Amino acid sequence: MNPLISVIIPLFNKEPHILRSINSVLKQTFQKFEIVIIDDGSTDNGPEMVKKINDSRIKLIQQINSGVSVARNRGIQNINTDFITFLDADDEWTPNHLQILFNLQKTYPGAGAYVTSYSRCNSKGIIRKMNNKYIEKYPWEGIIPDYFRAATEEDPPVCSSSVGIPKYVFSEIGMFLEGEPMGEDLDMWGRIAIKYSIAFSWRGESKVYVDAVNRSGLTKVLNPNLPFINSGKKAIERGEVHETMINEVSEYISYLQLGIAYHFLLRDDSDSAAKILKECKTNTYKIQKNLLFLFSRLPIISFKIFRGINKLILWCWNKECN
């Protein structure tokens, strides 16, 4: 059976979860796929567990630890189809995920990325289903009208375990940026959205496990310049962003800057937060910018008190609503 879809799974020390991820692919209603697993120098028994699976559609490639972008790029270079999907080694798919992506590609052939909804889960089940007020409610599917505005929501429209991308797109915009400590995936989705539309479906969701072992996140060293902050600015300067999108891309860059400044404040680094905020140029988020800058100049305890009160208000609001 010739595969029509490639599934790339970067693997690094995910022994407790890798079989769950692979089995969720093997149980898909759409069966014309290949699985390319890139072992990024795991030191646990994950790769040996993969080798024991008797399925000719699975290919295991091993390399020294080089980072998730290098692993994904190597996977892209070793596929046999024109449509690439990604699945993190600690996440899983619902059984119709690949079928929905395949259908989306046929229905919207000019898009640069095809995505499904996702749920954040823990070992006990679903914590929260994706919610995004800039995308029409279930069961809508179609082209996201404004990706960059939708990406400023708490649940952005694209995550690494919910997306499928035609192979030619990487030839147009380049591969995942290597050597970046964080934000390489946001950079990829942003670079795609500058040149192409993004197709979305609420069906065929993926499940993202927030309590998985070795889960990456803000435990990493914070980069004051997330990759897309630079990529987006350069694209605007080079005239690669259509004039109708310049404001949306610029405000998305500001949104990313505010997020980094916020997390610097969480880490008691007021000076780094203030530096980022001075560089942030925004009309949409002026209030947030000014408030964060104020806290960067006050004793850090004032920010922590404010954050605690804000969390209490949100908790009371949710209790009232429920």
Automatic annotation (TrEMBL):
> Pfam families, per this entry?
Glycos_transf_2
Origin: domain of life: Archaea
Q: What is this protein called in UniProt?
A: Glycosyltransferase family 2 protein
Keyword annotations of the record? Transferase
Where does the Glycosyltransferase 2-like domain lie? 6-144
Instruction: Kindly indicate whether the keyword Transferase belongs to this entry.
Output: yes
Q: Which Gene3D superfamilies match?
A: Spore Coat Polysaccharide Biosynthesis Protein SpsA, Chain A
Q: Name one GO molecular function term.
A: hexosyltransferase activity
Matching entries from PANTHER family are given as: GLYCOSYLTRANSFERASE, UDP-GLCNAC:BETAGAL BETA-1,3-N-ACETYLGLUCOSAMINYLTRANSFERASE-LIKE PROTEIN 1
